[in-house]
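Step 1: inspect the first sequence and its tokens.
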Amino acid sequence: MYLYFTIITKTDQSDILMKWCGDDQSSIYDGWKKIAKNRDSFNLYDLKKLSQRIKIISHINGRENCIEEDIIKESLESLTQIDKIASNKISNIGNDVNWEDVIGMEEGKKILTEIIIWPSKYNEIYKNCPIRLGRSAILYGSSGVGKTYLVRALIKKSNLYTMIIKGPELLSKYIGSSEENVRKTFEKARQNKPCLLIFEEFDGIAPRRGHDSTGVTDRVVNQLLTEMDGVESLDGVYVIATTSRIDLIDPALLRPGRLDYKIECKYPTQDERVSFLKLYIPKMGMHFKSSINNEEIQNDLNSLGKRMVNWSFGEIKGALTNTYFMALRKVQDDKSNSTHIKINEGDTIEITKIDLEMGIKESIPKRLMSSSNEYKSYLGEGINLKTGSRTTLA
């Protein structure tokens, strides 16, 4: 049984798969070597399940005699997460967010490049470095500022084996189980190195010690401290945590050696808001009227950006979503009164600055609704709210 769950080397993985899928399937050997480049943690149990799936999918596609890389990839994707990594506490995902799609956060991208992307790309150079280099960071900031989006872009950019842990899922009502889940998580990360280990909602599992009557989170924090800066090395394992409440996290975890870098994700600046609008208006299926020249579009976007001071990227995206559906409803409900809105051959909707202004008005964040001055800046100077006067949104 121990051998059944022992991690197999890459070369042996290819040999075993070729044996179980058919001795004449030499294409499996080459195909698996490419796919397994960043997947070290496969045991006999995983490979047995994978070989069975390969046989099924190749039979369905009528390619039993020619099992190539695409068949292996499809088989891997169809396996459940528990079959791939033999643990229901860990997730392994891929992403399609490009590094260039992340607007702003230049300092954060610079740090992540230096501590994760470069060391994984130039492993031999960094391996011989005489000093200990930081290998972990925590991303913090208000909801919607782009922490998760930056992490998703990092996953694709680094091309590392990735494990994503949603903080609270590590906690268990049984004594000792939560700490065991932490140990198993880091053990699996070491087996998969180079590995990117991501903790979402980190404040949920690592709050300040001494405030939990049951002592569960205290023991989890102690286990995290042991794993992140203990006797056993974390070489090849890069840890990223995200949180909206860094003030709730135990200070011991925020010291160098545990989470080495603190990266603040702030609300976008005016230039970043305009860049975001430029990038995501076409991405979300919209385009400006062809009669509007680029200079007019730039002026309109600058004007709209100034109406969204202290909006997060998520809130701006919500405004664009509202704009899209409002424009779509006009097309569906009354085409005769919506001649300025058209759907072109690329399935994108034609919009104007007025449509975007309406989308913004429908999307004002509730946290910004306490100030009459902010109302005027978002809704326009035509609304005059005097101190003590009543108003309604009805």
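Step 2: inspect the second sequence and its tokens, then contrast the two.
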Amino acid sequence: MKSKISTAVSQIPLSGIREMWKRAAQYENVISLGIGEPDFNTPKEICQQALQDALQGATHYTQSQGDPELLKAIQMYLYGRLGEDFSIPQIVVTTGGVGGLTSFFRTVLNPGDEVIIPEPYFPPYRHHIEWVGAKAVLLQTRFENGFVPTPEALEAAITQHSKVLLLNSPNNPTGAIIPAETLDSIAHIVLERDLLVLSDEVYERLLFDGRTHESIRTRPGMKERTVVVHSFSKSFAMTGWRIGYAFGPEWLIESMIKVVSS
């Protein structure tokens, strides 16, 4: 019966992380450097509010874009974090951060399009790109450069089929943060080559040693071509809740909502 499985899915290997979990379970006192999971539970205040809302009947379908109250809360959160007044049509709630990634890919990619991804990268990126018939173009980074993609390497990776640059900063798995001056150069190339940007910023609040994070969408000309993916999983220790959101230009989010609702 395995022949009934689609070719696209059959060609995707099982997650290496899951395989390592199985092996690690055979040993004691194993230190996990695997999945991005906070070492504490979801704060009680969040759990209590969710329970209260559920008991009061907030258990039904919401609009496709997301629950209006949640959308408003995200809007206020983004204003507090970024100092920018987003409109509600610029935001969409997704099933975790991965839901934002897949919705974006299904919205913008056609068969044969190319997505440039700096290595090392979060493994599901490639799978979701290939599922829609597009191609992942891997951009090598080097230890001596802090695993940060260089503008020169990016320029060399672009072809006539390039459509999207996927950035993940802070990076999973390396923790690398793209410096401000590198973001400037990358943004210049993106504008010059007319690319879209998907910026996975799920780890944007996990910063140490006084380091700061900047989004590429803050660069001139980038807001109209960048979608940012966030998740409640890391920032609020809500990995099991599977709640994420994406924000960006209204023209693009509007089409992502079509995908989310389908």
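Step 3: confirm your contrast with the notes below.
The chain has one domain: 64-261. The longest strand covers residues 162-168.
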